[in-house]
TrEMBL record:
This is DDE Tnp4 domain-containing protein. Keywords: Metal-binding. The keyword Metal-binding applies. Its cofactor is a divalent metal cation. It comes from Mytilus coruscus. Residues 20-106 form the DDE Tnp4 domain. GO terms for molecular function: metal ion binding.
Amino acid sequence: MIPCSGIKGKQKQNASNWAQKFFPGEQYIIGDQAYQLVNWLLKKYQDNDRVSENERRFNKHLSGKRQLIEQAFEILKGRFRKLKMMDIDIVQDIPELVVAACTLHNICCENEDDVEEFLEYVDDVSGEQLCGCTFGDGSAGNVNRDKIMRKINT
């Protein structure tokens, strides 16, 4: 979750610093249409009649990557059910929690602990707005997305 509920002024600068710390250089997270496009978050081009073939190809590529990520998190949430109910207020703790869960999962896999019995596939996509803040006008996000689209299509 992006740390941005009702932020302004100095808090907004802190959120920007947070983004630079966790997503330096050409590192991105993939978001759905509910999120604002920013330079460290990629989302699909809006599906409408004006989408070019290259943009459509980018959307398909990004959707495939997003599905892989969602499947990985479903496996973790299936194996470690507590992850479904955690209310994490300290955003800085989330990466450590994910790394710990992945490490424990890998240990289980190395010991041939079957994950299939733990899995519960639930479609958890509500499409609701998860982040009510803005980090600029989205132009930097458009530039990054267009650059990546060109790389995919070359």
